[in-house]
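Dear colleagues,

As part of the handover before I leave the project, I'm documenting each prediction I ran so the next person doesn't have to rerun anything. This entry is a single chain, and its sequence is reproduced below.
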Amino acid sequence: MGAIAYITDSKLLELHRLNAHRTMNFWRLSAKTGFTDFQKGDLVFFLSKDKAHMRKKEKGIVGYGRLESIHVASIQTMWKNYGKYNGYNTLEEFKEAIRRVNKSKELPKKISSLYLVDVAFFQVPIYLSECGMNISSNVESYIYLKPEEVALKILDIAKDAQDLWTSGSDASMIEREELRYSLYLAHRYTGDLPCGDRTLRRAYKTLKEAEGYELIQHSRTSACRLNDDSIEVLFYHDRDIDDRLILGQAALYRYYMDKNHSQYLPITFRVSDHDPELESLIGYMEPEEV
């Protein structure tokens, strides 16, 4: 789950916050995406340049959203499709904001946007320096969060700084995002189950269509279900995949989830073909027994 911190207009963010928007169209002046290894489900953190959110010249992170899709279109089309979800009350205000950030003070023919879902805001800023990452004050657009554990640290701190106005009664939204990210990091360590391209395509299709599950970010052979009091991980399994590989993956997931996620939740493992013997072998094991 790639993560970036993007410098953002605080007035734009305030409109989204006051309207309790859970989705937003995060527009960019460039008509080119310019991202590498950044896909649906990855996180965009809002880095505010407002002086009220700065500490010793360091910009503060005041919220985030999860990438749903990337679009390139004319300004008129962006407004037609998203309206106030672009962050402004009127088309003229939207155009004026674009002129303000464009050095030529003209309106480009096309701009790009990141359509974000599960948007959340923080009551107080969170600073990258307290999450193990230092950045230059001269950053003008965005930076990748490296190492990847930095994003997990932000989410951990954010659980106690969530703006409940923007999340309604759903106070567990950031906790679920933290779990998604922890599973992503576990997958980064373990990788997909080794198998051929045809099997990978079958795995991706099967898990994407599995009811109640979502693919673990950047994985094609594992999916998850996030319950209030437990986590379920679903592995793709067929005759082309050795049972021992899945047993090893399950042990590694337990280990890395315990290592990266401070709040322990029981993890149950399933396989896509519901093989009872294999699921019995995986069983349930406390993390310290791995």
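Confidence is low (pLDDT under 50) at residues 284-290. Residues 173-190 form the longest helix (18 residues).

All the best with the project,
I.
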